[in-house]
Amino acid sequence: MKTLRNHLQGFLLLECMLAVFIFSIAALGMGRCVQNCIRAEGYRREEALAQRALGNYWAQVEMGAIPLTSDSMSEDLHGAWEGMKMTTLREALQLQNEKEQDLFSLYKISLILTWGRGNGTQERRMEFIYYQRTQ
Questions:
Q1: CA-based angle 74:93:85, to the nearest 5?
Q2: Which of 47, 84, 104, 126 would be a feasible disulfide site paired with 77, CB 3.0-4.6 Å?
Q3: Strand-strand pairing, 72-76 and 102-103
Q4: Rounded CA gap, 93 and 22, in Å?
Q5: Model's pTM, two decimal places?
């Protein structure tokens, strides 16, 4: 009778050890899920900041608030965009109308936003055609 009781106690110990092992695996998996959610939220926040910065620069260029005097300009951003760098490239377009007359003051503007993320860098770009009004 005593050997049967010791055998059942040993089996109970194995069941408890197995339950603790399964629980610890589930807890580790939950920790990984939370870590991935936090990382995804960081990426989403940076992506939203990048889109807002590109949209702001596009509006400023369209309104003439940023003078496009050279073919390439770079600027480190401040405030909420700390650590991001905006590069503006201007390229004159050689286009003609239907009467084969040259069209002047048309430029292809490329806005390139770069920032560091972990071990690498991220980049987003926006390109549009801009008509530079003459005074």
A1: 15
A2: 84
A3: unpaired
A4: 65
A5: 0.72
